[in-house]
Amino acid sequence: MMLRMVCGTTLGLFLTASTAVGQAPTQPWRPASPTVHPGAGQVGPVIPQYAPAPQYQPTPPPVRAPFQLTPQEEDYLNRVLLFWEQRGQQVKTFACNFCRWDYDGVFGNANAPRYVDKGLVKYAAPDKGLYRVTQSNQNQEWVAIESQREEHWVCDGKSVYEFNHKTKQLIQHVLPPELQGTAIQDGPLPFLFGAQASKLKERYFMRVITPPNIQNQIWLEAYPRFQRDAANFQRAELILSVTETDLNPFALQLFSPNGKDRTVFQFGDIVVNNPWPNLDFVVITPPFWTKVVIQPETPRVGQQPAAGGPR
To answer: Residue 141 is part of which domain span?
Structure first.
């Protein structure tokens, strides 16, 4: 799953966030005055107006937009994304735990999770990351996840390493030169690491969908504009918790391309800009395992190199 999200093949998630900055203030932020945003009568946090106000002109999409924004909704979205981008630029390291619920809407109960797992994520700018699922909830108890289902991925900026416990293989996916140093920001889900407002709007139809009764949160919805991203998910919903100076990821819901299966993440114990040893991103082949190295494909003459963005 990690490789689907980060390098565009099957990389599933260094998913959580580069938008948290510093420690949250002791008192929750209360907006001085309400700001109307998507949905009649909805009120949400006041997002600062930066000057000059950005005027984004995304690349014309090859698919039809699933919704239309009013000028007021567009302006609020622009300010949310720019605030998010500027906060994310201050993040050097990030770590958190997560709980993940997997729902099977085709062969299972769409309202009851098939699996409930726990794990951790670490990130270091610009593109080092670690994602690992370590525990599973079985009969109301948290137990070490069986090796058949354990997920463990590490990106050191030049390669993505997959620990395949089923086959006892360490699989090294070497990143092509054009993705080294930018694999996470330019991957199929760039919302969370080094998000750039202009790139987000070029690749996704986005809007704010915060319910009117929700305080101190911003809910964002994103639909892929391009088939490359649509192969990974049909749509995404991200919840950001809002403080006076920060946007912190609270939850992420991903709907699979079939529109029925979904995965929900909730993030906690977030630590920002608190360095940890670089050993987290040093990969060593476990004893009695086999290492497999997969080189990037060489583009054919006239073919554009693979990238996470639109093509």
So the answer is: 2-27+39-294
Could you give the CA distance from residue 108 to residue 104 in angstroms, rounded to a whole number?
5
pLDDT digits (tens, 9 = 90+) for 50-88: 444 455 555 545 568 899 999 999 999 999 999 888 888
Whole-number Å distance between alpha carbons of 14 and 255: 17
Q: Amino acid identity of 126?
A: P
DSSP SS3 for 262: strand
Q: Which two tokens stand for residue 122?
A: 């670490």
> In the numeric block, which tokens belong to residue 309?
């963005």
> In this structure, what CATH number is given to the domain that contains residue 224?
2.50.20.10
Does 192 map to a domain? Answer: yes
Q: What is the mean pLDDT of each run of 10 residues along the chain (311 residues)?
A: 36 36 33 36 49 50 81 95 87 90 89 91 87 86 82 91 94 87 59 77 93 93 89 91 83 91 92 80 94 83 46 35
Backbone angles phi, psi at 203, to 5 degrees: -105, -20
The tens digit of pLDDT for each residue in 196-235 reads: 888 889 889 999 999 999 999 999 999 999 888 888 899 9
Is 33 within a domain? no
DSSP state of 281: G
Strands 262-272 and 290-294, how do they pair?
unpaired
Distance (Å, rounded) from C-alpha 72 to C-alpha 170? 50
